[in-house]
Write a structure and sequence with these properties.
This protein is 61% helix and 11% strand. It contains five helices and five strands, in the order αααββααβββ. The chain has a three-stranded antiparallel sheet with strand order 2-4-3. Helix 1 packs antiparallel against helix 2.
């Protein structure tokens, strides 16, 4: 069997070799089995990716926890006020520790803020900031 990709994993090589042996060298049968196996792998990958995306959405408890943090620690302000994304997440982690809340992963935190909280995100700024928000005094 010619090597198509020298970087193929041992597991993939074993599967391809088994398929070839099971089909007694019949290239048509081998190709059909390979296509079906590839299709199954793709479906599994899409399902896993979908599940991971759903996890990033955050639970209702996560959303409420972030809203409470923002209510307790920040306030709306004129647009000239801003908080960096990194600082906001760091203060959130400190808040979680102090209040014995579970930490929320950074991608989930930012995803929840983007979808559920009205803070103006300034993606053009470096470092990235939220505008119109300041820490409570």
């Amino acid at each position: 069997m010619p090597v198509i990709n020298a970087n193929i994993s041992d597991e993939a090589y074993t599967i391809l070799k088994e398929i070839t042996e099971q089909t007694d060298g019949n290239k048509s049968k081998a190709l059909t089995k390979i296509i079906l196996a590839f299709k199954e792998c793709m479906e599994n990958h899409q399902q896993t990716a979908s599940e991971e995306h759903e996890e990033d959405q955050g639970s209702t408890e996560d959303i409420e926890q972030i809203k409470k943090f923002l209510q307790d620690q920040t306030e709306e302000a004129p647009e000239r006020y801003q908080i960096t994304k990194g600082e906001l997440y760091q203060k959130f982690l400190e808040y979680c520790k102090k209040s014995s809340h579970p930490e929320i992963p950074k991608p989930t935190f930012y995803s929840i803020i983007k979808r559920n909280i009205k803070i103006q995100d300034n993606d053009n700024a470096r470092p990235r900031v939220y505008k119109g928000i300041k820490w409570k005094e």
